[in-house]
Amino acid sequence: MLGIGSTLIIRFMGIRIEDVAQATHVSTATVSRALRNLPGVGPTTKKRILETAEALGYIPSPTAASLASGHTHSIGLVQPDMSRWFFGKILESAENTFRKAGYDALVYSLPDYLGPVRQRFNANVLRGKIDALVVLSLFFDPSEEEQLRSLKVPVVFVSVEQPGFNYVGINDEETAARACRHLITLGHKHIGHLSGQTNDKCPVAPTQRRRNGWHNTMQRFHLDSSDDLVEAVTIMTASNGYIATQRLLDRRPDITAILASSDEMAMGAIQAIKERGLRVGHDISVMGIDGHDLSPSFGLATMAQPVSQEGTKAAQLALASITNQTEPKTIVLPTTLVEGPSIGPAPTS
Q1: In the chain, where are the structural domains located?
Q2: pLDDT at 60
Q3: Predicted pLDDT of residue 141
Q4: Which residues contact 55 (CB under 8 A, 6 or more apart)?
Q5: CATH superfamily membership of 74-169+308-333
Q6: pLDDT of 112
Q7: Going by C-beta distance under 8 Å and a sequence separation of 6 or more, which residues neighbour residue 118?
Q8: Class of domain 172-305
Q9: Cβ distance 208 to 313 under 8 Å?
């Protein structure tokens, strides 16, 4: 039986490593080292082996190669949903970064919309299959965190900060506060907030931090920040933003501006306002957070976060941690105010 680091004997379409060795007049160990780019093989011999292997159609088994190297060359990506814009952008940029480094992405979904309690994380799904893990917009409870640590691979959290792990994201509270301050400088005093779900068990969730940014800023300027100015939804989509805005305006018709926790909810708010015969940016201003690709089409003012860069940074941090497992790192990226006709001065009457 072959041990770790010894010669790989693999069949692929009838071609064995011995066939490559025989054709190049070297040992199977030399072929194995050349194919795995290990030292100890001269450049001329290595070139001849690689050319012969390609000509014969020999491709080493990824599983066997993993056993020999101790690495799977796959990185896991755990996220709630692949269909929504934010998650798709992160996945795209992270996967591109992995691919350039010679790694595959193994995606594991934990839907957060299948009821009051989401599906629980099961480490066995990924055990032995990955060299590192990126977790997107999910918070793990203590039992799930224990499962996560049992994988014994580097982990990077994106968007939701999990104490004790690598983190890449933005300052959600300051981003919402800055958006709110901008609306206040335009003369708005009655500013509603469209929020995502909040969870006392996860005070670091972006939805909670963005609500805090709105609430604390309104209080700082001695403006109304009562609960009836907040409408929360389970999933931050345009359709939910539309419904939430209808409820909010029914309850507080004095609102002159709305700060939404996501651009998608802000898009729904724009539609709801228009259906009431009101002018967006004149009668009621709307501002989002995210920098969605479609925001310019809606004329939406937003606090844009560098989503693709977050995915890239998370992937780079995961890759670097595979070979250099240091203390957890935190990377906080800046957000940018993007003006748009969806906001304007508060109406005079």
Answers
A1: 11-69, 74-169+308-333, 172-305
A2: 64
A3: 87
A4: none
A5: Response regulator (3.40.50.2300)
A6: 64
A7: 80, 110, 111, 112, 138
A8: alpha beta
A9: no
Beta-carbon contacts of 197 under 8 Å, excluding residues fewer than 6 positions away, are 207, 232, 233, 234
Strands 301-304 and 336-338 come out as antiparallel
DSSP code at position 297: G
Residue pair 322/132 in contact (Cβ under 8 Å)? The answer is yes
170 in Cβ contact with 302 (< 8 Å): no
Which amino acid is present at 325? Q
Looking at residue 283, its amino acid is: D
Query: Which token pair is 247?
Result: 């409820």
Predicted model pTM: 0.78
Residue in 290, 286, 292 with CA at minimum distance from that of residue 333: 290
11-69 shares its CATH topology with 172-305: no
How confident is the model at residue 64, as a pLDDT? 52
How far apart CA 323 and CA 337 sit, in angstroms, is: 37
Q: Are 262 and 210 in contact (CB under 8 A)?
A: no
Alpha carbons 196 and 129: distance in angstroms, whole number? 34
Low-confidence residues in the chain, pLDDT < 50: 1-13, 63, 67, 114-116
User: What percent of the residues of the chain are helix, what percent strand, and what percent coil, each to the nearest 5?
Assistant: 40, 15, 40
CATH topology of domain 11-69: 434 Repressor (Amino-terminal Domain) (1.10.260)
Burial class (CB in 10 A: 0-12, 13-18, 19+), 14: exposed
The residue whose two tokens read 């890239």 is 312
Q: Strands 11-12 and 15-16, how do they pair?
A: antiparallel
Place of tokens 């997107």: 136
Given this model, what pLDDT does residue 59 score?
A: 66
CB 120 within 8 A of CB 337: no
